[in-house]
Amino acid sequence: MQLDIFTLLLILGTGCIFLGMVLLLAWLQNRSEDGLLWWSVSLFLRTPAFALILLRERIPDWLSIDVALALLLLGAGVSWAAARRQSCRPVNLVAVAAPAVLWLMAGRFPEIHSSLGNRVAFVSAELSVCALAIAWEFRRQSRTMGRLRAAMAAVFLLSGLVHAARAVYAAVHPIPEMLPDIGNLVASSLYVYLLILFAGGVIAVSFYWEQLVSSLKYEADYDSLTNVLNRRAFEARAENLLRPGARRQAPIALLVFDLDHFKSVNDRFGHSGGDTVLCGFCALVQGQLRNVDLFARIGGEEFAALLPNVGRQESGRVAEQLRRAVAELQIDRPGGPVSVTVSIGVAVADTAGVRLDELMTRADAALYDAKTRGRNRVRSAGQARADQASFPPPGARRAEQLAG
């Protein structure tokens, strides 16, 4: 059966338009992902290339050969740029235009320009290099960005091998000068290229959905100002850590923070100054906590940290270390540095079965005790209860005297 080269080229051009529109719409929804824009541009550049090739013998050679192949190769260069932008790497515009420029230079030689076989060999070799370069970019990304990048690397590796095989075949095997007589082997390589194009487009769209879902999840779980966990996400993750099966009887400590006299910071420096202080405080605390610890903003200037496998003595040491670090912190802003202090309440769960709300109530009581004692200090739930037992309310002491 003879494969219809014109039908394949028509499907390729239509496919490029369709995928280009999908990726462009995806970029319009999330313009921070400029790799999607580069991908759509690369596909739009290929569409007129296939159209001009289809018009061979009906339009001048400089359009159906020179311009068409230059656009095809420029699209390949833009695809390489898109792969780099997927990982926020810089793009060299000279490298992007290099495949098209090389073809325009090579096309000046009659041995290449006037022979369909030589043109196919030269352009296919360039497309192979571009595809392998893109595969390398995605292979490098797959080490840190997951399986979709690895799949994209495999797709472009296959594309590079197909282009290379076509280049070798065209170089050693005579190819008819007329497109309809080009032969099933070369035509089938375009069919494989069509499948690769669609597979790459599907994976590229999957990138968008992966990034969109990740972005929405991040927005749902993290405070937009400080980039630490919000209260809802903190409570959900903390409940998981407090489950008896997750803890295995290990202690877990909850630290509740309240920035002292924070209203005065807003009054003196405005809300932008207050925001700067909150961000500086969060950066300091996150820098001193472990990766396994949870840290969240649970209110305006109130924060909480859950420390797995940390007992009473260690939790007090960590809290005091954080208190001192905050007291020494100087946050630079226009008009001079700002300093703040923090009060910290600590509660520890030594046994399984303690709920987060119970632990939070004890830590809040310790925090209140710290603030009533003058702020800028650490108090634990155990200390607060001991002080209440040692110093009962005046009414209770008077009742004891009357009873005696």
UniProtKB/TrEMBL annotation:
Q: TM spans, by residue? A: 6-28, 35-56, 62-83, 90-109, 121-138, 150-170, 190-209
- The EC code for this enzyme is 2.7.7.65
Q: Does the keyword Transmembrane apply?
A: yes
Concerning PROSITE patterns, the annotation shows: GGDEF
Q: Does the keyword Membrane apply?
A: yes
What this protein catalyses is: 2 GTP = 3',3'-c-di-GMP + 2 diphosphate
Keywords associated with the record: Membrane, Transmembrane, Transmembrane helix
Q: Which NCBIfam families match?
A: GGDEF (TIGR00254)
What name goes with this protein?
diguanylate cyclase
Q: What is the lineage of its organism?
A: Bacteria, Pseudomonadati, Pseudomonadota, Alphaproteobacteria, Hyphomicrobiales
